[in-house]
Amino acid sequence: MNKSKVHTPRSFVEKIYLKGELYPYLKVGMKRVNLTPTVEVIMGETMKTENPPVYLYDTSGVFFDSQVKVNLAKGISPLRSDWSWEGLQIETVVDKCGIERKQAKQGTIATQLFYAKQGIITPQMEYVAIRENLNCKELGIDSFITPEFVMKELAAGRAVIPSNINHPEAEPMIIGTKFSVKINSNIGNSSTSSTLEEEVEKALCSCRYGADTIMDLSTGSSIYQTREGILRNSPVPVGTVPIYQALEKVGGVVANLSWEVFKETLIEQCLQGVDYFTIHAGLLSAYIPLTRKRLCGIVSRGGGIISQWCELHQKENFLYEHFDEICDILARYDVAISLGDGLRPGCISDANDEAQFAELKTLGELVLRARGKYVQTFIEGPGHVPMQKIKENMDKQIEYCHEAPFYTLGPLVTDVAPGYDHITSAIGAAQIAWYGTAMLCYVTPKEHLGLPNKEDVREGIMAYKIAAHAADLAKGHPAAMIRDNALSKARYDFRWRDQFLLSIDPERAEAYFKEGKLLEDDYCTMCGPNFCAMRLNRERKSNVKGK
Amino acid sequence: MNKSKVHTPRSFVEKIYLKGELYPYLKVGMKRVNLTPTVEVIMGETMKTENPPVYLYDTSGVFFDSQVKVNLAKGISPLRSDWSWEGLQIETVVDKCGIERKQAKQGTIATQLFYAKQGIITPQMEYVAIRENLNCKELGIDSFITPEFVMKELAAGRAVIPSNINHPEAEPMIIGTKFSVKINSNIGNSSTSSTLEEEVEKALCSCRYGADTIMDLSTGSSIYQTREGILRNSPVPVGTVPIYQALEKVGGVVANLSWEVFKETLIEQCLQGVDYFTIHAGLLSAYIPLTRKRLCGIVSRGGGIISQWCELHQKENFLYEHFDEICDILARYDVAISLGDGLRPGCISDANDEAQFAELKTLGELVLRARGKYVQTFIEGPGHVPMQKIKENMDKQIEYCHEAPFYTLGPLVTDVAPGYDHITSAIGAAQIAWYGTAMLCYVTPKEHLGLPNKEDVREGIMAYKIAAHAADLAKGHPAAMIRDNALSKARYDFRWRDQFLLSIDPERAEAYFKEGKLLEDDYCTMCGPNFCAMRLNRERKSNVKGK
Q1: How far apart, in Å, are the Cα atoms of A87 and each of A26, A119, A162, B529?
Q2: CB B216 within 8 A of CB B203
Q3: A518 Cβ under 8 Å from any chain B Cβ
């Protein structure tokens, strides 16, 4: 990432770090926007009022810290390499490429869920508590989000901190309905396009623009190398769909997939540092005939692979059959499971059908099995759903899946807008997040049409940051409205630079503004100076104050 | 508009016209997409199934008809110039520029509401009934939307057909909660940018991309000429905010505004053919102090002007004082009133406050006064509203405003995304339209930052077409899902061209698809051929059929 792109002076926005109390060595990074004062002319007199700085959640890690030099070939600094806590027992192993990796000692467990259930607060738990409480302490806002609260939510399975011990570069973040809504960016090459460097660059751009996690969905060649490049540079958790690599290992022939090759792939990725896996273990062979009456059948790639395997072999889904073994492996690295919805609807007509909800029920059963093994778990959701059917998805997910966090792809609220599906899906995403979904998987403008480029990734992330933040506001997250109010006050005061810095994409806001005119004047080209309502309002106010 | 831009062969998509029954001379234009057959290979045998054509609502008028040559200087053909019905009495007058215009004879009324109340079905009513029932007749779907139903909705004040007798170029369209949700595109130059030609071009682009009405918000010079260019070429109703031109007439000095100059402006615009006026008659001087505790005060341009005028003169809003006279004027041309919300909230913090709802109550009072004069009326709404407060806006509007149609600007569900406010507002727009809003005023990516260019207009319209269509689906409009299903079936069949033609922006969908690869192959670069779930699904299906 080119540092020079962050061209705002350090005095206006800077990376700062807050310390932990339970773990004083914690350095919780965030952005601080230092605002300029409000200047008012009241009855001829000039008044200046200071505006307090605003802290912003920052997913870009050290990439926003101008003090840190990054060497992409070497990777970023492993933030969590020395973190430990009561009971954790780690050993070193060497992976297939001769690189030293970590795992919990045989018979022990490394997961946040395991320690939370014992009432142990890990550094991760304190870290996310500090991270969630943006501006609260400074503004005297009483927040319910404490390290104890985080621990209890984890213990109840209502929240997840994906945190593979082999990905110490990642900052802890929490996925749960009582915390700020998170967004995921999908990247990864397909067989027909994009290089390793492009994918690493997309991953870094994703973090820079605000993705809370990234999923590497690579299906082409060099899967291991691409993933290594991404993991060693990613300050956010990384997810994958291991069946994709397993399929590559058997030459793309679905019939040749087996539990053995899948297991080998799982361990390889656990050792490398993947933080969560999408596993389509809930797609039972009995559900496949339910998709025959659908307009679009099965549209999940993993779901397509598994259902074809089941039918070719006339056997039950091997991911379901070996689910307990999967959990035993993941527990040694603290890899979380994202239970995939292989039967998610691929069009409005197929939404909320029998196939979809049958699988969701099985996912609920698997949640309990995973919890029994102390593996952190969340649930993937649709897809394409018209607005009036979105609520039912959330309600059923809570009912069937024992309050495990929900992680949805959109949903897209109509099928008619290829080229604009970041918008069709942001509409559904905002709603379902308001209803309780904890993380939103973004959709880019290229959905259904092609692989996204960097600009598409940006568009997708911004649409989803909007959806997530809108849901935080609607749910009443203690810190959410502070940013809106600070930005709107800046807008009303004509403090343009402050407005840009508080916005989700300062570069774009400033560029659009400048397209029309100079930065210095107190109006934009939209209304011109004579018709600017805010200006009229300020004039009125400066005349009538005290009346 | 350059016809060559519509580069799809006529045999795939064409302009067709449906006849009226009550008024056989009616030619109701729409697009027909002629689809290719579905080709399946089942157990080695190739099967072909025809797909019926799909009719699409078309706002682009003759601009999509390749048989019609348009001369922008002359204007398009006046579709409604010969339309008449029982009781209508029209006379000819000459306007300030010497052009012949029409008005209802002294003491008579030209409005659709007047005739609806007498049980008379006008050509407009039959036209919109045919227009709304896309595909219903052809597919044997029983639709409740008949000319009688349209008449009854108009008579009850629950729907409006803006249809100035001096704008015969405009096709009738209906704004009401029981009909498809409509969208408006705002155009118009400000004092600091854009030319007459650019604004006419933006107006035509708006219709081409799908705007159901356009509002000319010009505030700079040449207001009359810009408006004439737009009106004579616009196949959709045109709205304005007459106070803008009135203010230009008094040199931009708010204190010099008066009822007399406003009245003169109204008549000028009625004669020219404007179909609806935003009039901020509900902003009473008593409500102004309620805005003082706001974070952003008054953000409506009209609201800012009126409140400043009230305070300078220490008088009541002259639009409120002269409201009955306004109605008497408008009734002679059938200009509808869009009651402006001068106190709409301009940020999340100000949403649903006392000032906003006080004005809304007065708008409800004015609805009854306008109905007493047979003037068609609808109500403008916010603005900036967080998701959890949107429903209250709709509920209160229905309660206070006697079921008059609601016409909202967004609402934007967060303040933090300048540069992306087409998305923040499409999220709110989709929701409020689902709850019952009849028309959505678009927001472009340039909102809060500058005047939109043609590409911004396109982005804004597409975001709003998505929101409107999503709401049609959610409300169960009889014709809405046909298009989604046809597109999704085309997607599943790999009928790419059909998919593009059924999408809201065929050019963009096709361009994005082509960015990656050739049109002929059965996959896109997103997943590549090996990981295409739809392909896997079809392979499964072709193997297991009949099992």
Answers
A1: 19, 12, 19, 48
A2: yes
A3: no
Who among B463, B474, B527 is closest to A388 (CB)?
B474
- What average pLDDT does the structure give for chain B? 92
Q: How far is Cα A111 from Cα B16, in angstroms, rounded to an integer?
A: 64
**Substitution target from B484, B494, B497 for chain A, most A beta carbons within 10 A:** B484
B50-61 residue pLDDT tens? 999 999 999 999
- Range 422-481 of A in CB contact (< 8 A) with B: 422-424, 426-427, 430-431, 434, 445-451, 462-463, 465-467, 469-471, 473-476, 481
CA separation for the pair A127, A171 (Å, rounded):
8
The owner of tokens 């000028």 is B268
Q: Which residue do the tokens 């505004």 mark?
A: B257
Between CA A347 and CA A222 the distance in angstroms is: 33
Put simply, whether the predicted model's pTM sits higher than 0.90 gets the answer yes
Residues linked to residue A187 through DSSP beta bridges, in sequence order: A216
- pLDDT tens per residue across span B86-125: 999 999 999 999 999 999 999 999 999 999 999 999 999 9
**Single-letter residue type at A200:** V
Q: Please list, residue by residue across A320-350, b when 16 or more beta carbons sit within 10 angstroms of its beta carbon and e when fewer do.
A: bebbeebbebbbbbbbbbbbbbbbbbbbbbb
Cross-strand pairs, B92: B102
Gap between the Cα atoms of A183 and B71, Å rounded: 50
Question: Which residues from B are below 8 Å from A469, CB to CB?
Answer: 414, 416-417
Angle, alpha carbons A354-A357-A359 (nearest 5°): 105
Amino acid symbol at B211: A
DSSP string, A287-301: GGGGGTT-SS----H
Mean pLDDT score, B488-516? 94
DSSP-assigned states of every residue in A370-401:
HHHTT--EEEEE-SB--GGGHHHHHHHHHHHT
Six token digits for residue A414: 């109509």
A33 interfacial to chain B (CB closer than 8 Å): no
Amino acid identity of residue A111, one-letter, is: T
